[in-house]
Write a sequence for this structure.
């Protein structure tokens, strides 16, 4: 399941909904990305996430399908927010559920790594006075590449 | 064809979307970029460094060698920074 939304989310409620009625799940891994108040040594007062409606959903669905093809997942969820966010706020979450922990851990890492390099989101940071587009990091490409090609 | 611009590509060009009809010889993304560059200083600035620009055709990531057709939706943007 994927969701692209401006509003916040409640991870506990999401976990409950995702696993409800599924008694074959042995473990659930969740990752939540938060807005930091410092970026590259500079203060961050707010962050605005721009995205490409339509392509974002397609890319996230493709990434999730790829994870389900690679690991035996009983359930999965990707939530990504857009719009203006403040330090400490939740940006995104991935949740993976599987019979065993290894698949859930690996699939969660894969989802985060791949969405960082494929999902069309762009972060604009503000320090209160001026705005800067966050630059893509080579380390994110490296992290995604270790999972191999599609 | 429909063109979409995001993040600083949008800011430099000064618009988020437009419909264009390039000349018949413009058959791939690279040729489209060359044609767009000549449309004004904002376009020239946005496409000054193509290593910093990514492209999607019909919402799929593609390379600049990708062939394009009049009905395509083509988006230009910086490398993505979500997550």
């Amino acid at each position: 399941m994927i969701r692209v939304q401006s509003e916040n989310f409640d991870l506990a409620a999401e976990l409950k909904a995702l696993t409800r009625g599924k008694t074959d799940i042995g473990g659930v891994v969740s990752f939540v990305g938060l807005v930091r108040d410092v970026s590259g040594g500079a203060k961050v007062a707010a962050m605005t996430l721009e995205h490409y409606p339509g392509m974002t959903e397609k890319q996230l669905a493709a990434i999730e399908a790829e994870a389900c093809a690679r690991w035996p997942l009983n359930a999965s969820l990707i939530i990504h927010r857009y719009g203006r966010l403040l330090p400490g706020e939740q940006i995104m979450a991935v949740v993976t559920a599987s019979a065993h922990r290894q698949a859930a851990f690996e699939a969660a890492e894969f989802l985060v790594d791949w969405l960082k390099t494929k999902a069309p989101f762009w972060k604009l940071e503000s320090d209160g006075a001026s705005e800067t587009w966050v630059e893509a990091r080579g380390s994110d490409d490296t992290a995604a590449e270790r999972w191999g090609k599609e | 064809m429909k063109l979409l611009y995001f993040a600083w590509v949008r800011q430099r060009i000064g618009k988020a979307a437009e419909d264009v009809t390039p000349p018949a010889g413009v058959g791939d993304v690279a040729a489209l970029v060359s044609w767009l560059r000549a449309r004004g200083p904002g376009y020239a600035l946005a496409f000054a460094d193509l290593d910093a620009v990514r492209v999607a055709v019909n919402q799929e990531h593609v390379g600049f060698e990708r062939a394009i057709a009049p009905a395509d939706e083509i988006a230009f943007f910086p490398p993505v920074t979500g997550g």
Q: What stands out?
A: Helices of chain B lie at 7-13, 29-37, 41-46.
